[in-house]
């Protein structure tokens, strides 16, 4: 599978720059052409295909000591990588919650790769681009323009930052030096909250057990009475409630907590109100969906991703914090080698590193900035409306098919359902159907558990998905279900 | 400064894909041409120039609602961003510890932007690329091939991961649920360790005070006797020493702790031995420098960056852990919506998200993989040798100039010195000289404090820097120093 290296890349004697820039330039053109062709025809091929064993093995070479051929390395990419991607650029990828990317963001990555900017700090335009992205985010979410924020890999990191800022507010800046000694802090989120909130509690040393998972109502939203009872109970135990995490677009069903009620509750009890809006935040760009998020503008912090519903290429998450001083008090330090000045390149404080854990930081802001500038917020909002409309259409189709069964209401853009049959193990049957569809390359939904039952989960996030794609998906999964039930006489899809 | 949007970008009605792929393709070609021209002539312009106020203001527009012009947005990039970058691609950027980037990595970013892969998990080739980068890293560092690892933004995150894995080893997996309750853990690093080790202790809830900063010898390496005394003292206090952090290439002077001694000490006292080798790790690719790192292969974990001495575009850090099980025990969770399967796209466990905090993860592995394949490890090692050689040359020049004074020995690639004069405030004078050089666009060194004195710090990391660049730098800073002392009759550069 591997290309022989006929023409080793020749760099100038003392640098990594090539003797022949023309070779880089012309290969760059070819890559642009190939990537445009890939995206222009992205729906034609399979969504995903399994890597043959020999492809997987072909990666496993010793560390190459000598220079390789530039075009040959690209040929390796074309042979080993491109055919076996996860497929989230494909219109029929509706698994997990993945954005589809966009060509403007792709070109921005080329530019960012060329500039090679480090956005940890200092006084240069790439940092201004990021600041503008943060200001636009504040505007989108109805936050004051004085809010602070920073781009990170994704909402997992953004939620960690939120937990740490809330920890500082609860315990004061001394916690940074002294650590958590017999710490009584407890936080609250719903049982539907994303697991990364719990991971953040773990990493921050507070422990996942200190995150109370509050039951939900039939709409998969946090039960406010249960929340009040939990807080009262914890206070009676001498614990210190410090943070309430609302979900705006839960991972399993897309449900949105009553953020207004959560905001009021937080204020009443002196809690830090954080919203995990990993994909939901972008629904603020839709006039139609914005009311569902009422209350998000009251939050102390919001975590979300641009690489999901805003279709910016991976990775690009964001944390926004209302109180910039508290945010900086959680992360800022000033070692001698990062001395800030009033002029020269070391000016421009506060620096992005004062608002998060990263000191080395790539120019992910550029792909966000260009995506927003070129498409405009209204178009991004229209894509979101369309996702939600497709989710409703799919829900109607599922309801109309006797062999299918909805497992959760559709709040936004996630549809959870299953194939019904007289199978002993419906969970296994539905997991098999999903894997069948994936292996056929026809479509990529994923699975989750809803009320103890395995659900086929279709998350409409990808801007390329159409009605026709969903029709193919449903037809395909009905066929797969029937095939599996026919193959096994114990099963009968009419039986339930 | 802003371009009028003559031709709003026209996407297809229901997606973000363009009506006209040709416009994307041809702009992509132009961007490749422009970036190649930028890099081919990168030494010609100023290293850095201050953003005029009107440029800074030009970013501050309301969130654009309507579509913009694609070429116009690129024109904005060219007018507002490209001229005002930090300058670390320029040969005379020797500030902080920044890599220069490389054109192969730049092209890889274009490809990664197109594929839009999410490397949090699942079974696809981009994850295999990352696994191969981790295997190559293990080979480079002399780790077993069973070591685990994951790419992150940078060493700040990688060090946090190391602290968390060490925390799990010390306290068991229960700490994830229970949090730190009256935790007696203490860790050790030298006074020269990078501040992000301390930040990691802070974030992990252990507190920065629980990181004992051990004094250094004249070579800026951790004093082993002082370390032994500190551990004995802490044990006597009933505290639990759990982690020892060695530095391989300190941020201020490039010093390398005696890693072999640290390894033996760790083993003797049951400590987790972590090495922060942010830039130093790559010196393993130099036959000449490798002996300085002896002992790194014995570490329990190593954190380092590919965007520094390996010149991969920002950002690309790495954590490598000897004990993959313990690594996974620190991060792995299995929520229902991330159910792992034996076949289909949800196969392929363990997933990268099992080894770090990120669930959404871009394809930063591709730029590392292609950089290594195209240049080969020997060429990267040669660049490192050359950096160290340039550092020695600069040190000789500094020693030969009566107006200059070395402030620390040169262990590897960092040269700390200052301009001498009869100034009342030599620290301010040297800070001014550095800012003068930056504002003139002539060169970008940075500053730090060495034994209480402000040093001009030249970190030779960038592959483009040459002898001629260093000559310009020294000539420029002598001229700046003389200008400043001449302007102030109190100062006299011969006076000391």
UniProtKB/TrEMBL annotation, chains A, B:
Its cofactor is pyridoxal 5'-phosphate. The keyword Transcription does not apply. Keywords: Decarboxylase, Lyase, Pyridoxal phosphate. InterPro entries: Aromatic_deC, PyrdxlP-dep_de-COase, PyrdxlP-dep_Trfase, PyrdxlP-dep_Trfase_major, PyrdxlP-dep_Trfase_small. Belongs to the group II decarboxylase family. This is Pyridoxal-dependent decarboxylase. It comes from Chitinimonas viridis. It comes from the Bacteria. The keyword Lyase applies.
């Amino acid at each position: 599978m591997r290309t022989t290296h006929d023409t080793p890349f020749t760099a100038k004697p003392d640098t990594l720059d090539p003797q022949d820039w023309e070779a880089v330039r012309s290969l760059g053109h070819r890559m642009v052409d190939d990537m445009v062709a890939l995206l222009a025809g992205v729906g034609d091929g399979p969504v995903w295909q399994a890597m043959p064993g020999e492809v997987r093995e072909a990666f496993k070479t010793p560390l190459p000591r000598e220079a390789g051929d530039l075009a040959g390395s690209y040929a390796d990419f074309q042979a080993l990588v491109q055919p076996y991607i996860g497929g989230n650029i494909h219109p029929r990828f509706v698994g997990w919650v993945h954005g589809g990317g966009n060509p403007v963001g792709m070109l921005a990555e080329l530019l960012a790769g060329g500039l090679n900017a480090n956005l940890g700090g200092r006084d240069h335009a790439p940092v201004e681009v990021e600041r503008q992205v943060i200001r636009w985010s504040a505007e989108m979410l109805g936050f004051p323009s004085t809010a602070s924020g920073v781009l990170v890999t994704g909402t997992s990191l953004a939620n960690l930052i939120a937990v740490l800022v809330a920890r500082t507010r609860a315990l004061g800046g001394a916690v940074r030096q002294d650590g958590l000694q017999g710490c009584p802090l407890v936080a609250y989120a719903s049982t539907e909250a994303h697991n990364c909130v719990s991971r953040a509690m773990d990493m921050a040393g507070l422990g996942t057990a200190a995150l109370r998972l509050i039951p939900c109502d039939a709409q998969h939203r946090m039960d406010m009475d249960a929340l009040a009872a939990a807080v009262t109970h914890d206070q009676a135990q001498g614990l210190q409630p410090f943070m309430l995490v609302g979900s705006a677009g839960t991972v399993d069903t897309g449900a949105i907590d009553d953020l207004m009620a959560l905001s009021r509750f937080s204020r009443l009890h002196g809690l830090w109100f954080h919203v995990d809006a990993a994909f939901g935040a972008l629904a603020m760009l839709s006039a139609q969906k914005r009311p569902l998020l009422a209350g998000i503008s009251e939050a102390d912090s919001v975590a979300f991703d641009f690489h999901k519903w805003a279709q910016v290429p991976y990775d690009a998450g964001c944390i926004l914090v209302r109180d910039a001083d508290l945010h900086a008090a959680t992360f800022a330090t000033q070692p001698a080698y990062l001395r800030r000045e009033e002029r020269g390149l070391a000016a421009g404080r506060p620096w992005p590193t004062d608002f998060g854990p990263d000191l080395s930081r790539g120019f992910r802001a550029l792909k966000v900035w260009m995506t927003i500038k070129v498409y405009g917020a209204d178009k991004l909002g229209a894509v979101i409306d369309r996702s939600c409309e497709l989710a409703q259409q799919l829900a109607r189709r599922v309801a109309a098919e006797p062999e299918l069964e909805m497992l959760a209401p559709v709040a936004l853009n996630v549809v959870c359902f299953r194939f019904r049959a007289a199978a002993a193990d419906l969970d296994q049957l539905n997991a098999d159907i999903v894997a069948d569809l994936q292996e056929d390359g026809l479509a990529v939904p994923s699975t989750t558990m809803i009320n103890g039952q395995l659900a086929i989960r279709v998350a409409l996030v990808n801007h390329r998905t159409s009605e026709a794609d969903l029709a193919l998906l449903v037809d395909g999964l009905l066929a797969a279900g029937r095939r599996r039930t026919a193959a096994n006489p114990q099963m009968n899809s009419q039986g339930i």
